[in-house]
């Protein structure tokens, strides 16, 4: 049986996209380091790649990147990092690095205590608010399939007419009535299931039992999903309280506790509290729903703006889910207008990424272009998460851009009184929409606006920005430039192309230099000596100007200074190994003794030298290459490394 150094569990409320994006990110981060990892996914289809007891026992550490319950009690006694699924997607390198090398990562104990040495480390095992969110999302993830199934079946029943399920109506149809009834049963389970699985995440099996009953009371008394949420936390913590109160009972009575004492007392206590809480909660729920309904008529523009901002702010996260849950709750009450704006706002962002890569292909990498094209499909089926990588690339500009398109789509949907009776499905449920072509038009308009703005932002970024891409593989950080070049060339670029700009004469060993500036002067003089430049002073000034923008010092004693100037006649790569390391501003605050420099002619607008930088970056991402470069004693050895 294979042994995994790191095991990780990922899960998101919907179990559609975040779960698997975090899985891929963590696997890629581990692969860079040559670290074995197994990722257990908690998706909509259930648990996949489940851990065995031996795999858990043999692992050096556990990463939980989930916004739902993944049964962490089984990891008792293991070093654990517990974060949101979003961090698993966005910070996989940091998480892998921390679980492998940070001795302060706390050991998890199922009793809830840890040996964390600081507040920061304690937060790694799950802050209070993160735990609350995980509990809530456990309920949401179990509830969503019921809502979707029930909502779609109910919506399909309207094919025969809005009153087709009513035996007294002339539109009555037996099949429609059956579909409506079955869909209604599924929708009616929304609150009890939400309540039960929030409680289950807190109080395990006992919480589940108490939660179902508490949820039924909340549903019957008309408290809506607000009652389901409050009831879930109530039931869950009552289950925990009962476990503590009866902790000292003899172990021989464990069976009696689980099947008699806890369920009976828990249902009685939680049910009674919820019964009396139902009156104010019902009024609160009805007041909120009435307010939203009134906004549909009196302030559709404001409502669309709010919904658009909420849905695009975190794309599948808690704010997005708040809008979606409100829409499903209104669907259950027969309001199909609110969901039209929510769905439009959720569909627009992924479509916008597809339009963005069409508008400005050169501003995106080949991988990003492929993702954008795939997002046409994802967006059409109401899966917003495909837009997350684009949002994460430049969140301060891209997220507001997504909000603009989502708000436009939502506002137009509300203004034109479009109704969508299904809670999910995207364009698949178009036959159920009252104005299908108009609805699609509004969504496309919103997506086009966002897409156009995204393409402008990406284009400017690719032309003017220098991006520092940090790769922690082998503790090497590589400096490269944004990807405005044709990535079809870049992706197929072979390291042998470095032979065009590197030869043995371009390599110097045991060079004496006492400072960074002295070394840069040496490189400028070296470039003129080799015939690559005509004015060493001008090249030296360009080296200094580049360092003034941001240091080209990397890690593990490597720096990659580069100069672009009109006096440089052709692209060249220079490699210098110093006799003694010199001070340089680096990411690990260590001195530099290996310099890889690039000379760039002024007429090169980005296509050629970026390919060379890319090839070099790929080599430096491998710790074994860096070790070999450091051990190389001759020019021939160094040359072979870069031409291999």
TrEMBL record:
Coarse class of the protein's main subcellular location: membrane
Q: Which UniProt keywords apply?
A: Cell membrane, Membrane, Phosphoprotein, Phosphotransferase system, Sugar transport, Transferase, Transmembrane, Transmembrane helix, Transport
**GO annotation terms (biological process):** phosphoenolpyruvate-dependent sugar phosphotransferase system
- Residues covered by the PTS EIIB type-2 domain: 6-101
Q: What Gene3D superfamilies does the annotation carry? A: 3.40.50.2300, Mannitol-specific EII, Chain A
- Keyword Transport carried by entry: yes
Q: What is this protein called?
A: Phosphotransferase system fructose-specific component IIB
Source species, please? Companilactobacillus kimchiensis
